[in-house]
Amino acid sequence: MRNHRRSTALSILTAFSLLLMAAVVCLPGRMQAQTTLGTSSVAGTVRDASSSVVAGAHVVLIDKLHGTQRDTVTNGDGGYQFIAVLPGTYAIRVEQPGFQTTTVDNIVVAIDQVASVNPKLSVGEVSQVVEVNDQGGTPLLDTISNALGEVMENRRVEELPLNGRNFLQLANLVGGTQPNTVNNQTGHNNAISVAGASQWLTGYNIDGIATRSPRLGNSSLGISVAAIDQFKIELGFFLPDKGPQVGIVDVLTKAGTNKYHGEVYEYVRNPYLNAHSYFDQPHQKESIKRNQFGFSIGGPVAIPGWFSGRDKFWFFGNYEGTRQITRNVSNQFVPTAANFAGDFSNLLTPQDPNQAPAYIYNPFSYNATTHQRAIFPGNVIPPSLINPVAKALLAYYIPGSAKNIDSGVNLTGYTANTLRDDQFTIRLDNAISQNQSIYVNFSYQNSPVRNTNLQPLKGLGYPLEASLGVIQHTVSLGSHWLNVARIGFNHAYTFQVGEGQGGPDIENQIGIPGTLDPHGIPNITLTNYTGPGNAYSRVGEVANAYQINEALNYTRGTHNISFGVGIVDHRVKQQNANAGAVGSLAFQGNYTKQFNAAGTAYLKDVPKVIKYGDAFADFLLGLPQSGSVAGFQPIHYYFTDFYPYFQDSWRITPHFTVNYGASWYYSEIPKPQGPDALLPHSFDFSTGLLKYSALGEVRPQVVKEDYNNIAPRLGFVYSPPFDPNTTFRAGVGLYYGELGLNDVQYGVSAPPFSNSFSFQNVATANLPERQLGNGVFPVIVYPPLTKDFAANLPKGASFNIFDENNRTPYLTQWTASIQHTFGHNDLIQFDYIGNSSHKNPNRYNLNMCPYRADLFCDLTKLPYPQYGTMSYVPYNTNSNYEALITKYRHQVTHGLTLLANFTWQKALSDGFEPNTGGANGMQSLCRTCEKGPTTYNIPLSFVVSSVYDLPFGRGKTFGRNAGYFENFLIGGWRLSVIGRMDHGMAASVTATNVTNNAGVMERADRVPGCYANVRSISKYVRTNNHQYFNTACYSVPDAGYFGTSGKGSIYEPGQDTWDASLVKGFIFTERVRLEMRGEFFNVFNHANFIGLGENVSNQATFGIVTNTRDPRIIQVAGILRF
Q1: How confident is the model at residue 187 (pLDDT cuts 50, 70, 90)?
Q2: Which residues are paired to 1080 by β-bridges?
Q3: Distance between CA atoms of 1099 and 1003, rounded to whole angstroms?
Q4: What local confidence, expressed as pLDDT, does residue 258 receive?
Q5: Dist CA 716 CA 332 (whole Å)
Q6: Which H or E element spans position 966?
Q7: Res 26: pLDDT
Q8: Which of 1006-1011's residues contact partners 24+ apart within 8 Å by CB, and which partners?
Q9: pLDDT-above-90 percentage for the chain
Q10: pLDDT tens, 160-171?
Q11: CA atoms of 110 and 40, how far apart (whole Å)
Q12: For residue 434, is pLDDT > 70?
């Protein structure tokens, strides 16, 4: 359904938000968008010894690292608040006639935190000073904000063992977040899923500037951990100033202080220290060589004898380089050298007694009377019948061993993945006056990745270049007003490039014309084998985003009101439809099978008795089952995001706070620029014809503007007076995604501007229509675009469609939370998160057979038989999510910091998921048929992280009075740990598409009453030939039918991974120390299985795990700090 009913409560909130938005519209000027850096605040209530509030007290906030200070006066309820406070270490000084001056020292303010500090005054003279040490801790109990999530302060950012030192791994330590695997279009691990939503609904900010890619929804800049001061993940409920996304990742870079400080470091890995992977063969071992090095320095800007920046002007700089080459053990199953010559006699006598002999038949010997094909004598194809194009392609295909050919692996070797990363960050901070400050930051990264394959021309390259700049100005406009203004930009150059790019035009040379990029060979898919080639040409974007953010904050009495609006102007060059420009060909073995007596279908395999046909034999004969080619030129898009908001944190009583606000999220529909504005098209469902912008039949943006994206938020925080250590929090709000450019490009790729073609040969024909050497990809020359063009497209023409009625995805989310502290340093928290999202993106072949209850795909009923594949993107899917999260946090005392999260969650969707990389599913026209667990849902997970200064050495529990040499040996040790145990993600059991309807991700048939995830099988995966689930529960669907199994019917293996870091510190002087660090990833060397064979058609690997996550990896480092 395109329109979804919303609850009465939410409707009331929406109406309420319209009134709030009216107030914003009346405000002059342009203000904030995205996350406001500096939205941290310090607030509390000043009381005397009898717990009565103290009004009119003078409160001073002192920045301990920079020497600056701000002041205010408590209101009639004894309350005070400092807003727009940059994270750091502070002190609060309170003065009031008749009371002693009280100072609360070492208050750590975290990013986007409301730090609650409640000083108590004692009767006496102002000249008498009482100091209270807050022990360097961040206030744990949140008595004002509804936001869930977690702050990672600098101690944890620097000390926790992060594999690859990727800052986004910090997000995975928080309940309700899920790690994404390496993005298959950037080569980097640069995205996460938050609160059951896809990565498209997560926002990423560095110093308040959004770094989210408009194409893939990932973070474009992977800033060095050494440049990060604090990190925060926000999810659940937060006020509108944080942005429209359902989850926010905030990063704050380091700043200089009044003392010069810095570090020089190097992290080194080599293969000699690492453990063997579970599947390593004797004398084989994954090889990782990694060298990460850099330096950081910061302090006051000074010119000796002329200028001193102490207390007013500071700098910070960081450089980091990474060099890595990883040689992974790769296992493939490929034809043998004898098979390359046409000899398949090995199939007649399988080495495994459980395998059936396989016979191949000669399709050129078909007898029209008997409907039979003759068997190839001895299972050998004569050289004269080997297709010359196929023979030429063999030069780019490496054969496998004839030994152990029934094991599913007969080619083993190393693939090389290389990374060369260089990056730097420079930041300047200036306290212009007590009421005014400014900072400037610039970050740059160049990080290309290259992945090779055992097969030539099957590798990929991932060039990446990104930069970010920001200027932020903060000024106090009197005692109640404060303004924060920011301008910035984010640039990203990210591409995925096929290995054949830059080489010769191989396809033209060997006889495969008609592709859009001849540099390389087509991606050859062979059922039961790993095939050669790669369809990729060049896919990616050059994205520039220019941002203007400003917030005007008003604090008076019990209100903290913010008005804001922000503008993000996008300029994007996108090359997005070239994933198939080199072409793809699929061979399934149908044309070397035997017909039944009637010649209407093929004989079915009989397990352990007989098999028919072979996909590689079909390949040698040049007889593909299907194929496709698609490509397009770069497109230039301009569009602007506009995000005004209003919000208020109203502390109605000292124990009850209401947080409310609303925003209007308007994201302009991306518009092609210049000549590109003539390229867009749409589809008229009534006539079955394309409509073109160049003919004035559709607007260049295709989709109509969406003006009704109102995002109300309402929450409360209650701290019962009878239990000051407990808070109850709840909230509800509306959040928004956007139209991703990866989807929008479906509105520009169509004839005559793109040469997209697909074919599906009839599986039961004696010989296919399209064969290698006879124009398998026809060279199509379209006539000029006229009013009659759409009605005269050639039969089989393929194109993409972006639905004109698409609207902005939205998500309604509700949260509840209970916090309780035990003393000053321990907190336990219970969170509930629920959400429901609608109008999510979908993808499928519009030209697919209609749904039938018996799951038969009747190709005679295709809605548009004159066309080929019609790749269609409507925003019509839904998802829902529920989670219970238990968190325990111990703040640093006696050298120990600990965070533990246990999460139970369930995420369901009924549509396409971006990380599946394929079509939506089988029955895309039946939404309920496709509902099931998402592929990024992990039902159960436990994550713990800890940093512990071991109690050995001078002044510690053990060795308190140690001498110099004793202390040198036993003192200065630190242990840091990250542990993760989780249930595996949901997955679907697939099958080779036997419907002959292109663009379908076929699922297997399910045996009724059979339970696949059997503990008795998965428990003994190491001793049962690595079988992980009950494969007897699934079978290949009959020809022409969809499978009966549901979406997400099995769960992949989970993981049990513990990473540790052991550090020894050597103190040379008060300010200079050396740290020697050993880091152990997967320290217990658990075999965490991945690579589960989920395709029932590939019996060699079906139900079997074939790979593992990393074995134990040891990294050593030296860090000189000063």
Answers
A1: low
A2: 1060, 1114
A3: 15
A4: 92
A5: 57
A6: helix 964-970
A7: 38
A8: 1006/1033, 1006/1034, 1006/1043, 1006/1044, 1006/1045, 1006/1046, 1006/1049, 1007/1032, 1007/1033, 1007/1034, 1007/1035
A9: 57
A10: 999 989 999 999
A11: 7
A12: yes
Q: Of the candidates 716, 579, 562, which has an alpha carbon nearest to the alpha carbon of residue 647?
A: 562
Task: Delineate the domains of the chain, giving CATH numbers in brackets.
Answer: 31-133 (2.60.40.1120), 146-254 (2.170.130.10), 940-1121 (no CATH)
CA distance readout (Å), 298 to 94, 314, 474: 31, 7, 22
**What are the percentages of helix, strand and coil residues in the chain, rounded to 5?**
10, 45, 45
Whether the CB-CB separation of 1082 and 1090 falls below 8 Å is answered with: no
User: How buried is residue 493: exposed, middle or buried, by Cβ count under 10 Å (0-12/13-18/19+)?
Assistant: middle
Nearest CA to 576 among 504, 503, 636, 490? 636
Rg (the chain; Cα; Å): 32
AA identity, residue 811: L
Q: Which amino acid is at 591?
A: Y
**Residue from 75, 39, 11, 38 nearest 647 by CA:** 39
Give 57-100 pLDDT, tens digit per residue. Answer: 999 999 888 888 888 888 888 888 888 788 888 999 999 888 88
- CA pair distance 219, 249, nearest whole angstrom: 10
Q: Single out the residue of 996, 1036, 1031, 1037 nearest to residue 1017, CA to CA.
A: 1031
Cα–Cα distance list, 579 to 476, 765, 796, 828, 1121 (Å): 52, 30, 20, 48, 47
Check residue 129 and give its pLDDT.
59
Region at 782 (left for phi over 0; alpha for psi -120 to 50; beta for the rest): beta
How far is the C-alpha of 488 from the C-alpha of 483, rounded, in Å?
17
Pairing of strands 1005-1006, 671-672: unpaired
> What predicted TM-score, i.e. pTM, was given to this entire model?
0.84
11's torsion region: left (phi>0), alpha (psi -120 to 50) or beta? alpha
The CA-based angle 869-872-875, given to 5 degrees, is: 165
Single-letter amino acid code for the residue at 49: A
CB 345 within 8 A of CB 571: no
Tokens of 726: 């407990």
Q: Are 969 and 1022 in contact (CB under 8 A)?
A: no
Burial state string for 246-262 with b = 16 or more CB within 10 A and e = fewer than 16: bbbbbbbbbbbbbeebb
State the Cα–Cα distance between residues 795 and 760, nearest whole angstrom: 13
Question: Which stretches of 492-646 are DSSP H helices?
Answer: 506-510, 615-620
Contact 935, 970 (CB under 8 A): no
d(CA 592, CA 603): 11
**Whose CA is closest to 716, among 655, 662, 663?**
655
Please say whether the dihedral angle defined by the alpha carbons of residues 848, 851, 852 and 856, taken in this order, is positive or negative. Answer: positive
CB distance 615 to 537 below 8 Å: no
Kind plus residue range of the DSSP H or E element containing 299:
strand 287-300
d(CA 1051, CA 932): 12
Instruction: Print the SS3 string covering 795-825.
Output: CCEEEEEECCCCCCCEEEEEEEEEEEEECCC
Per DSSP, helices labelled H in 41-187 are 154-159
Weakest mean pLDDT among 139-153, 479-493, 670-684, 837-851: 139-153
Nearest in space to 255 (alpha carbons), one of 293, 302, 297: 297
Contact 600, 751 (CB under 8 A): no
Tokens of 957: 């529990």
| CB-based contact 292:222 (threshold 8 Å) | no
What is the bridge-based pairing of β-strands 932-933 and 896-909?
antiparallel
**627-669 pLDDT per residue, tens:** 998 888 889 999 999 999 999 999 999 899 999 999 999 999 9
Q: How far apart are CA 495 and CA 270, in angstroms?
A: 29
